[in-house]
Structure formats: structure tokens, C-alpha cells
């Protein structure tokens, strides 16, 4: 039950004792004491609400910072992914280039081998055969020089390919080392992002709890403010009740025994049709099945309570002074508010389809038989 609802019940039940007290000053003192209790509790709940609002503000600031960190981490991961893809593409391109160089080197090696083989054949057949097969010394020298130039050029080209291939492999090794470093940084960033997401989720749960606390305290403060206002209104009514006309009305209720008019014209019906056995033992009122729907006051008095109460539905409690009260329950409509002064015969509310209306007469906490007050056997 909420704090405000607790105080509302206290007000309703306490009214049967406070305003039935013989001395008005004593009733006022009791009301002041209860008002102090409500205002103290209201102050405590207001402080808790303020603390919850501050926690909410701090959590929102933390959430904003965490969200910014998460966005920065995601941007860093995106940049690292692009860097990683670029490295992988460059490594693949380098490997393709080296493969081409290796194919070219193999072709040059094969060509050089063929040329060396030819040159070797010339040497094996002997210089004389070479000389005699030539048209002259000049042609022979030209042939030897030509072979040397070709072999030398092929050797240089082969050496260049070998060096380029070696440099390419070294570059690939450097790129692969860079790629490995990028992968390591990528894993670290992913772990950091996961940790931030977990922390962010925890802060969101904390914020939900603080929201719930804040809503609870806001509701409690509103209900306590209403309860405090109602108690202040009651204190004002206590002062008004000192007027002579109302004092006389409060003093005459007991004389009306046997002549009261029922609040709803009709017949009294058995409560067994409407209450359980347990409720029958606790309630001493009567049910009235009406010939009409309008419910009226049986005697002048003040409305001490107009609202809903479990087991009674919509109900009105009237204070007739000297601790005499009438209770009208199971109303379909209430037309009077707490604190109003009502004369006998004035409309309090209505029932639906003739009711039934539940009606009690009490003095303090004792239930009286309404039949005797209506002058019925």
C-alpha cells in the first residue's frame, strides 16, 4: 500500500474517533498531531525524491559519456578494419608480383641454360673447328663477343629478378607483421568495446531502478500532499463547528431515535443475500432495497469521508456529533465531498436500480440497529 493510501485510511478510521470526541480542543490537538506526522513523512519522502533525482541526473551524464566512448570505439574499429583490408590487398598484390617474377626468372634461367649449352658445344668441338667453320677471324670474334653479351645480359636480368623477388618477400614479411599487429589491436578494441557495452548495460539497469524509485517517491509525495491538505481542511472545519447552529445539530441526534427517515425509501432486505458469513459477523448494518435511486441524509451533519473503501465500494460517512455517525455504502454515485455540511433530506448520492444500499448507524466504534432508529419492529 502506498504512503498516501495508508494516511487516507488512517484519516477515515481516525475520523470516527477524532470528531466524536467530547472536547473540540482535544479533537483539534489530535488533528494537529496527525498533520505533523503527515508533514514529517512528506518531508522525508521529498528528500528521498530529491536524492533519486540527483542519482538519475548523474547516471544520465555517465550514460552520455559511455555512449560517446562506445561510438569512438566503433569508429576506431571501422578504421582498423579498413587498414586491415588494405594490408591484405597489398600482401596479395605483392605475392602475385613475386609469382610473376619467379616465372620470369625461371624462363630466363632456361634460356640461359640453352645458350650456355650452345656455347659449351662450341668449346667442346674445339677452336679449330670453330675457326674453320667461320668465314674469317673477324666473324669468329664477332660471334664470341655476341655470345658473351647475351650471356652477360641474361645474367644481369636474372640477378635483378632475384634481388626484386627477395625485396618483395621482405616487404611481404613486413606487411604480414603489420597485419598481425592490426589483428592484435583489433582484438584489443573488440574486448574494450565489449567491456564498455557491458558497463553501458549495467548503467541502463541502474537508471531503470532509479526511475522506478523516483516514480514511487513522486507518487508518495503527491499522495502525502493530498493527505496533508485534507487534514488542514479538517482542522479548518473543527473551528467552523463551534457555530451555535451546528452545535445544536450535533446535540440533537440521540433525540431522533425512533423517528429517523431511511436514507432510501424501500424495504430492508436480508444481508445474507449480499454478505459472506464472515462479513455478516463483522457488519451490523442493513441493506435497503429502494423504490427509487436517490440517497438522502437522515440527519444534519458533516461529510467526514466521501470515497471508496474495500468491502464498501463508494461510500459516505456522516458525522452527526457526540460520536454518532451514519454510513452509506455500495453507492453508484457520490454527490458530496469530504468536509461539506449537509442538512437532513439533502441528496448525498444514488444507487443503481434501487440498490441495495448498505446503511449503518454507529456511536464511536459500536454499531446500532438502524431498525430501532427508523421506528421499525
UniProtKB/TrEMBL annotation:
- Transmembrane helix as a keyword of this entry, yes or no, is no
**Start and end of every M23ase beta-sheet core domain?**
283-370
Pfam families in the cross-refs = Peptidase_M23
- The keyword Signal appears for this protein: yes
Arranged from A to Z, the UniProt key words for this protein are: Coiled coil, Signal
| Entry coiled-coil feature ranges | 28-104, 172-241
Check the record and name the CDD domains matching this protein: M23_peptidase
For this chain, one GO molecular function annotation is: metalloendopeptidase activity
Name this polypeptide is given = M23ase beta-sheet core domain-containing protein
Q: Which organism is it from?
A: Uncultured Desulfatiglans sp
Amino acid at each position: 500500500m502506498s504512503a498516501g493510501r495508508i494516511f487516507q485510511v488512517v484519516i477515515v478510521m481516525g475520523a470516527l474517533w477524532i470528531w466524536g470526541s467530547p472536547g473540540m480542543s482535544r479533537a483539534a490537538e489530535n488533528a494537529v498531531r496527525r498533520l505533523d506526522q503527515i508533514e514529517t513523512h512528506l518531508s522525508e519522502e521529498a528528500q528521498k525524491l530529491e536524492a533519486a533525482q540527483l542519482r538519475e541526473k548523474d547516471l544520465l551524464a555517465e550514460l552520455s559519456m559511455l555512449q560517446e566512448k562506445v561510438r569512438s570505439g566503433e569508429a576506431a574499429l571501422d578504421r582498423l578494419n579498413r587498414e586491415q583490408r588494405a594490408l591484405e590487398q597489398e600482401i596479395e598484390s605483392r605475392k602475385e608480383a613475386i609469382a610473376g617474377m619467379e616465372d620470369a626468372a625461371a624462363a630466363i634461367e632456361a634460356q640461359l641454360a640453352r645458350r650456355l649449352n650452345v656455347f659449351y658445344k662450341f668449346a667442346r668441338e674445339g677452336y679449330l673447328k670453330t675457326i674453320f667453320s667461320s668465314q674469317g677471324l673477324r666473324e669468329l670474334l664477332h660471334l664470341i663477343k655476341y655470345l658473351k653479351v647475351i650471356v652477360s645480359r641474361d645474367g644481369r636480368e636474372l640477378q635483378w629478378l632475384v634481388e626484386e623477388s627477395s625485396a618483395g618477400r621482405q616487404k611481404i614479411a613486413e606487411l604480414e607483421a603489420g597485419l598481425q599487429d592490426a589483428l592484435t589491436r583489433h582484438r584489443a578494441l573488440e574486448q574494450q568495446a565489449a567491456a564498455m557495452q557491458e558497463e553501458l548495460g549495467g548503467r541502463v539497469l541502474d537508471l531503470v531502478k532509479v526511475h522506478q524509485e523516483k516514480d514511487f517517491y513522486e507518487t508518495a509525495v503527491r499522495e502525502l500532499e493530498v493527505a496533508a491538505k485534507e487534514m488542514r481542511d479538517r482542522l479548518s472545519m473543527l473551528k467552523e463547528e463551534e457555530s451555535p447552529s451546528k452545535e445544536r445539530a450535533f446535540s440533537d441526534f440521540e433525540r431522533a431515535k425512533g423517528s429517523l427517515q431511511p436514507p432510501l425509501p424501500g424495504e430492508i432486505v436480508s444481508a445474507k443475500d449480499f454478505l459472506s458469513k464472515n462479513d455478516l459477523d463483522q457488519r451490523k448494518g442493513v441493506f435497503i432495497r429502494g423504490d427509487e435511486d436517490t440517497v438522502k441524509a437522515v440527519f444534519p451533519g458533516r461529510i467526514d469521508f466521501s470515497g471508496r473503501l474495500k468491502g464498501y465500494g463508494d461510500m459516505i460517512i456522516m458525522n452527526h456529533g457526540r460520536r454518532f455517525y451514519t454510513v452509506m455504502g455500495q453507492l453508484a454515485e457520490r454527490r458530496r465531498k469530504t468536509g461539506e455540511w449537509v442538512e437532513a433530506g439533502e441528496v448525498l448520492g444514488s444507487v443503481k436500480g434501487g440498490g441495495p444500499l448498505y446503511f449503518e448507524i454507529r456511536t464511536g466504534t459500536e454499531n446500532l440497529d438502524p431498525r430501532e432508529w427508523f421506528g421499525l419492529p
